[in-house]
TrEMBL record:
Organism: Colletotrichum orchidophilum
PANTHER family: BETA-GLUCOSIDASE, BETA-GLUCOSIDASE B-RELATED
Name of this chain's protein: beta-glucosidase
Reaction catalyzed: Hydrolysis of terminal, non-reducing beta-D-glucosyl residues with release of beta-D-glucose
A biological-process GO annotation: carbohydrate metabolic process
Molecular function GO terms recorded: beta-glucosidase activity
The entry's keywords: Carbohydrate metabolism, Glycosidase, Hydrolase
Gene3D superfamilies: Galactose-binding domain-like, Glycoside hydrolase family 3 C-terminal domain, Immunoglobulins
Residue ranges of every copy of the PA14 domain listed in the record: 1-140
Amino acid sequence: MKLERNASMVEHLPSSNLVCYHDLSPELTTEERYSFPARKLIIPKTSEAYRLFLFSCGPGKLILDGKAIVDIEREWWSIMSFLFMSYDSPEEQLDVTLEAGRSYELVLESPSREPKPHNLTYVGMLEREEEAIELVRTSDVAIVVIGRDQDREMETSDMASMDLPGRSNELIFAVAKTRSRLFFNVWYQGQKQGNSLADVLLGTAPPCGKLPITSPHRIEDIRSFNNHFEETDVVHYGENIYLRYKRYDHCKIDPLFPFGSGCSYTTFEYTNLRLNTNMLEETGRIEFYVSPVSRPRLGRPPKELKGWDKALVHPGETVIARTTLDKVSVSYRDNSVQKWMVAGNA
């Protein structure tokens, strides 16, 4: 590991806390690799052994008074790493004895990492899709599992589109033409996902979950679609109070699946009471919304979620759903007077 000595940028910081996620000089935002040394003088208050440790996303070297004490150039990626999506090296530790009152120069040298190579395997997507459709067509029962994995759904990156990976959308439509009875969206169930899905499909447990988001027909229906511009790093929050499901109600946009929707093996009758007409126990989730009766001085969404309840309903049983609605539930913030307001006859 050899660093280029012609510096394109020099900074003097009052702290050893160095964050390089943003605000770099234009010379460091190109596709070229770059390196940096960070130097700091340390003066121990007591004479004793101190533990120094280092892990880095790329090669890294820790130098104390001109002597390299940690060098992780040989090992810059490991499946045992736990930071930065496993791109960091395993942690290296070293105990050094330092004298009180003496000044030591501690230097960290690090170039940007090389791109991590990925193994590629030819799987023949066209043939496998046709094979899957044929299996569905000739099977009595078909369970098709489609979704994203940890390589496509992670922090520090945005989804390029609302589509599922590859030709997953085409496969879903092709399967639906053959077997169009039911589709489940199970989200991320963790290590017990297979067990949970099997319980639902076999009728041991009911699919009583509710959709926690609003699914639009198209990405343009999302309120924040026009708020981000690629030529700048500024994100404008232009949704105002019409966030999430409130946007669709306010603009009278028909969503693909509304917030709170879900399926069940039974039916519920919503009146003052609720009746379970199936032979299975069901966990019911009830949402409570408020809507303005009179017209407030400021614009308000047509309805707002203010409470919810969940109850286990045995076959033929009647239960009562409860929630607490107070003055906060019908209030809104008026920034012109810096107060929370309640409209008349709310």
